[in-house]
């Protein structure tokens, strides 16, 4: 090969290699740029997802606070939004106060004040007045506790949170939390339980847990003769319904609501007053 041609060929090959190198470098640069863009997009996406999660959390929190505020506001009002159905003669029940008691059991003097005496209690409900006659001779501690809770307004706006319609027929009331676990802050033992476990219609007795000393603020009204277990000591009978049993009957006739526990036709205690007789 002539020297000049050899030189030209060498130059051409070097130029081609240079061009190939430049192409390769451009390709690599493009790959690097694309990878950087991919990473940047991934980072942006991650940031967006994180922001959405934070925003969603704020929205959820705001929603919860809004519900709490609404509930708190409603509890100070006389009524809440009307439920789907009400028993005849009933008004919409107030919002559940959802309060826990922080009281002490009645003193010996307070128990003595009702011992051997009759106490008449007026339960003002959103469905009318239910009158109870309480027996201070047979259940003085229970009656003294009932009088105390009435005087401090413990049951204001408290719903009757439980209705039983099979085997045992009772309407259970007296829990300001509305959930069935509230108490006034104290408990006491069983008084005047029927030995045979028979609770006639119109009986007013205390509800409790398995602990025989857990009588507190929850009570039940028997709307149909019932037999309750005597294991553990039975339940304290402390009074009878002497007026307004028709109100209990129409609530019971409505059956149980969708939760399977509370009455379908709501009833709440607006206030309770008591008068001790000689």
Automatic annotation (TrEMBL):
Key words of the record: Coiled coil, Isomerase, Membrane, Rotamase, Transmembrane, Transmembrane helix
PPIase cyclophilin-type domain: residues covered: 128-274
Coiled-coil ranges (or none): 10-37
Transmembrane segments: 42-62
MF term (GO), any: isomerase activity
Domain of life the protein comes from: Bacteria
Pfam families tied to this protein: Pro_isomerase
Catalysed reactions, semicolon-separated: [protein]-peptidylproline (omega=180) = [protein]-peptidylproline (omega=0)
Top EC group: isomerase
EC number(s) stated in the UniProt entry for this protein: 5.2.1.8
SUPFAM superfamilies: Cyclophilin-like (SSF50891)
Keyword Membrane: yes
InterPro entries according to UniProt: Cyclophilin-like_dom_sf, Cyclophilin-type_PPIase_dom, E_coli_cyclophilin_A-like
Role summary: PPIases accelerate the folding of proteins. It catalyzes the cis-trans isomerization of proline imidic peptide bonds in oligopeptides.
Family according to the record: Belongs to the cyclophilin-type PPIase family.
Name of the protein: Peptidyl-prolyl cis-trans isomerase
Organism: Nostocoides veronense
């Amino acid at each position: 090969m002539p020297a000049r041609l050899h030189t030209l060929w060498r130059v051409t090959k070097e130029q081609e290699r240079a061009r190939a190198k430049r192409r390769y470098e451009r390709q690599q640069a493009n790959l690097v740029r694309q990878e950087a863009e991919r990473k940047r997009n991934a980072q942006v996406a991650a940031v967006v997802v994180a922001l959405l999660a934070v925003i969603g959390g704020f929205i959820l929190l705001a929603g919860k606070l809004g519900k709490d505020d609404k509930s708190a506001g409603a509890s100070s009002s006389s009524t809440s939004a009307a439920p789907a159905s009400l028993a005849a003669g009933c008004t919409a029940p107030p919002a559940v106060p959802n309060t826990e008691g922080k009281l002490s059991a009645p003193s010996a003097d307070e128990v003595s004040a009702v011992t051997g005496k009759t106490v008449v209690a007026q339960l003002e409900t959103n469905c009318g007045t239910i009158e109870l006659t309480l027996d201070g001779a047979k259940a003085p501690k229970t009656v003294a506790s009932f009088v105390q809770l009435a005087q401090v307004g413990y049951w204001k706006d408290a719903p009757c949170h439980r209705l039983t319609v099979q085997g045992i027929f009772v309407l259970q009331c007296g829990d300001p939390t509305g959930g069935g676990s509230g108490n006034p802050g104290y408990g006491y033992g069983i008084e005047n339980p029927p030995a045979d476990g028979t609770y006639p219609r119109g009986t007013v007795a205390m509800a409790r847990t398995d602990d025989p000393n857990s009588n507190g603020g929850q009570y039940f009204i028997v709307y149909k003769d019932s037999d309750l277990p005597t294991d553990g000591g039975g339940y304290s009978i402390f009074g009878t319904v002497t007026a307004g049993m028709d109100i209990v009957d129409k609530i019971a006739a409505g059956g149980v609501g969708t939760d399977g526990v509370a009455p379908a036709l709501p009833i709440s205690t607006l206030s309770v007053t008591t008068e001790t007789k000689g």
